[in-house]
Write a structure and sequence with these properties.
Chains A, B: It comes from Haloferax marinum. The structure is a homodimer. Chain A folds into two domains: 58 residues, Winged helix-like DNA-binding domain superfamily/Winged helix DNA-binding domain (Arc Repressor Mutant, subunit A, Orthogonal Bundle); 177 residues, Beta-Lactamase. Chain A is built from nine helices and eight strands. Chain A binds a DNA duplex through helix 1 and helix 3.
Chain lengths: 258, 258
DNA sequence: AAATATGTTCGATATCATCGGACACCTACA
DNA sequence: TGTAGGTGTCCGATGATATCGAACATATTT
């Protein structure tokens, strides 16, 4: 067999994997006990116990009530990771602004480890309810902003991406064919913006644009999402793209000068 | 020497400490290189390199530009940890509401590993700028909401706390004497709310109350902070406490029935 | 009271995390 | 051009340790 996949990268800290397996498991369903985690991950109870105790001693998890919960130090980590993105404040403001003027959901994604990650989000209707789902991930090829980001990738990066990624069928419309994706990206490059017609979620449309830095490399992607019966026709195909292109342009300028 | 402090808890996953040392270091000043982290932590370059590579392979950190940055998976962790607190939405709303009506900063703390951690915060003036500093920590004895929480501790828990904690002098007014603290807590218990007169930061006053669950155990603490020249007299000593007590009561009811 | 499940501790063993050293690469700077 | 200092990366040896299974304690249930 060829060394196709490098199944286990050599010279890694093995216990780190165990540790994060445990953490992810605790994250998944908070309040889990030692035995539950042990059963789910197929590690010896004593091993899980050791890790959980270590994590608690180091104050990264908490033993509240019956089971274990992620500690708030991760909130600190997360805020740091978020604020570390140049222009985050500007991005957040712009996202809220677009959500308000359009009355639809607006979000900003960044690319990380070949995934699209929500960095900011706002839901229009009530300005209070902001940032739902921040930090969660979806495949780049299945998000309008994600496709807009992919369209800005160099040929080299794109080839790498297409080779590594495993396409998942989120809906019947999700792009799962490399050639179709390349074709779509070419169109996006030409137009300057991307559409998403029920490729992420049935009944949901979206428009997306890439936001690039001074050197033209993508910082992230901005998109507006809404029900397909509302996002259609002229509004969907012209007005929203124009709005987003303007917003992206403004963002790019502001970020460059901050 | 007596086994007073249990300096190193036995049977812990040692490499976890190294791992989190590295992570904290990367968090501290984002964009650090292998050598910088190695020098700062006094681990061999190869060791740091190994950990960083592992963390990158597992997609918890990112190699952007010159150095390493915390990955956005921690944002996901953090949001999970935050949302895991029962009634977080209600808390956030209430905090925003209080900030708006008072025009001062309002925040909600929870206790975790004997620290007060910001769970929600709002700054009054512009409702957009919300949640600054979420996830950061201050000593319980040095925050008004923290003292309110301490006042609800059982004698057992309080004794443990006072024994473990190392008092730090944040300002000249910070309480650093166990007896003074106990005295203060007794007063708070009697009154039902706590004051903070420049004990955290010079020129800053605050009022705090505890929020308890159905069983009377503290969920967290609610407080209003502002410049000492504005928070004084009748307003500070009566109006704000009343407002906060009402808010806490309302919160307690809403959380109990959610 | 027996029985099941769960948290916790312990001992043995093979694994592995750590370190220091070596190499390759890059940038200055002479 | 060549040397010197810095950095990222790889490697080998060794002492430390993460893992497992078993055993014990405790709690809850039957």
């Amino acid at each position: 067999m060829p060394p196709a996949d490098t199944p286990d990268v050599p010279a890694n800290v093995q216990s780190a994997r165990t540790l994060f397996d445990v953490l992810e498991c605790v994250k998944e369903g908070q309040g889990k006990t030692v035995s539950e985690v042990s059963a789910e991950l197929d590690y010896a109870r004593s091993t899980v116990h050791r890790h959980l105790r270590t994590l608690e001693d180091l104050e990264y998890i908490v033993h509240r009530g019956e089971g274990y919960h992620l500690g708030l130090r991760f909130l600190d980590f997360g805020m740091n990771a978020r604020d570390n993105y140049a222009g985050y404040d500007l991005i957040r403001q712009k996202v809220a602004e677009i959500a308000e003027t359009t009355g639809e959901r607006c979000q900003f994604f960044v690319e990380e480890h070949e995934d699209a990650v929500y960095l900011a989000r706002s839901v229009g209707e009530n300005a209070v309810q902001t940032d739902p789902g921040i930090g969660s991930r979806i495949p780049l090829y299945a998000a309008s902003a994600g496709k807009a980001i992919l369209a800005e990738f160099s040929e080299q990066k794109l080839s790498d991406y297409i080779e590594h990624v495993t396409f998942e069928q989120l809906t019947t419309k999700t792009i799962t064919d490399p050639d179709v994706l390349r074709e779509e990206l070419a169109q996006i490059r030409e137009r300057g913006y991307s559409f998403n017609r029920q490729e992420t979620l049935c009944g949901t449309h979206a428009v997306g644009v890439a936001v690039t830095d001074a050197d033209g490399r993508p910082i992230g992607g901005l998109s507006v999402t809404g029900p397909s019966h509302r996002l259609k026709g002229e509004h969907f195909e012209n007005e929203l793209p124009d709005l987003l292109l303007g917003a992206a342009n403004e963002l790019e300028l502001n970020i460059a000068f901050s």
